[in-house]
Amino acid sequence: MSLETLSDVACFGGRQQRFRHASKALNCDMVFSVFLPPQAAAGPVPVVYWLSGLTCTDENFVTKAGAQRAAAALGLALVAPDTSPRGEGVPDDPAGAYDFGLGAGFYLNATQAPFATHYQMATYVAEELPARLQALPALDLTRESLAGHSMGGHGALTLGLRQPDRFRSLSAFAPICAPSECPWGQKAFEGYLGADEAAWAAYDACRLLETAQRVPPIRIDQGAEDSFLTEQLRPERFLEVAERRGVPVDYRLHAGYDHSYFFIASFIDAQLAFHAKQLGNPQA
After folding, report:
1. Is residue 150 annotated as part of the catalytic site, yes or no?
2. Catalytic choice (23, 52, 84, 150)
3. d(C-alpha 122, C-alpha 105), whole Å
4. Which of 3, 50, 137, 246 could staple 19 via S-S, CB 3.0–4.6 A?
5. What does the longest C-alpha to C-alpha distance in the chain come to?
6. What is the pTM of this model?
């Protein structure tokens, strides 16, 4: 269960760290990043997991979102895993496309060859990564929340809806809300899970919400000028299900904003404050 430290630097009074380890779930080496706020020096702090989108690694959020300043003020640790298994022998999209394979694990457990051997991202994020984090005593793993962007927003919603008694809150920037009904999701689900759409329901936020007995507090931020909004993201489908089931969703549509990290950087402070309140942090 050892972690190899790749980097450890001062940041807003805390530490920005990066680790590597051998993953049993994914059958490869994996890298993840952790920001520890200054409050971690006095005792364990709650954790917000950040799940990134297509083509990203753990570094995109760390270097582009500007989240550390707010996390330091709020006393939140930020954990950012990679978006897929990596390394020699890990299969990729046969055509080399960006929306499947490397950098596009979709936070599910693949059942189809040749992907099932490595692409077990749901198990990795929900089980193996937290087990690895036990090596970091500064983290309070009894207080956890999920956040993410695009494909990672899909991951935050689905993993959170699958374990509502564990995660205190869920948030997403421009999430893929109805993957069974959009090209990105359909390609990923068929490739990883097969053609039987019944198997897709376990990783579709709309379908999970349809049957959820308990739902953590949810916040979604969406840019109105996002070029993927209509075809790929479909937030209206999630909101329709939420309204029908009487589930409150704090949905914010922001005029003028797109799908980029400029959008995320503009509203990450508000999302982290939302999580801090649900995690019971006195700084919120």
Report:
1. yes
2. 150
3. 9
4. 3
5. 51
6. 0.97
